[in-house]
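As promised in the previous annual report, we have extended the structural survey to additional targets. Below is the entry for Carbohydrate ABC transporter permease.
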Amino acid sequence: MMNTAKTKALRLLATVLIGIFAIACIFPFIWMLSTSFKYEIDVMEFPIRLIPKNWNFQNYVNVVKNSNFPIYYWNTIKVTVISVVGQLLISSMAAYAFGRLKFRGKALLYSVYLATMMIPATVIILPKYLYFSQLGLTNTHWSLILPSFFSVFGVLLLRNAFAEIPMELSEAAFLDGASHFWIYSRVIMPLNKPTLMTLVLIAFTWSWNDYMNPLIFLSEDKLLTITVGLQKFADESSNNYALIMAGASLALIPIILVFLMAQRYFIESFTHAGVKG
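The corresponding structure token record, generated without further manual editing, is:
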């Protein structure tokens, strides 16, 4: 009985702590959303009112009409979609080679490839800038898109998933005259939808939130993405926090939508990994 009571007490304590932590994490988001619907004079009122006394939808209209926000939005959508598609294709093909094929030097090549994850992004930013300058790719969206195609993390994630599939499936397909590309596209990829969607979600979030690369490689206002554009918009808004929060809320919409669409696969992927482990 005492063990049962102790277990219930520990579960209750864990639930309370998780609830407090969840509230602490979600409160800034709620405050941002609430502020985006307030008039500027109501933003700094105390005590904080999470439900606006007077709703002001004009903030969103002003963000869209009186700034380059739509341009930043479109630029980010274009860069992110192309980056995610390219990363998914190249990472999955490389993962198929490392996880399903046999060739000389595969282990060494894979180890060297994984070792590049140890190099901080800030270390290679200057060489990358000089290289892109020589190619004439600075001040173009390709300077953001091309590096994202070659994701070590994407290859690592998919390679481990592909390697778990029994080789007997590939051998049976070969006996029926299937090619490696047919097996890759018709067998391996469909069996790994949760892992693929996990990579899509991670790649989308990373590309959408990328701040350092657009800041360094882009200087023309018409090319800026949402992160740098939002910072510029905040500087131009003269500390109008209601407008800034409206812009930040708009910037979050795509990430929330993608997560809502992919969360089932995302959770399924981690559940499978936990059961497998």
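The CA atoms of residues 72 and 229 lie 6 Å apart. The chain has a mean pLDDT of 87. These points will be discussed at the next consortium meeting with the crystallography subgroup.
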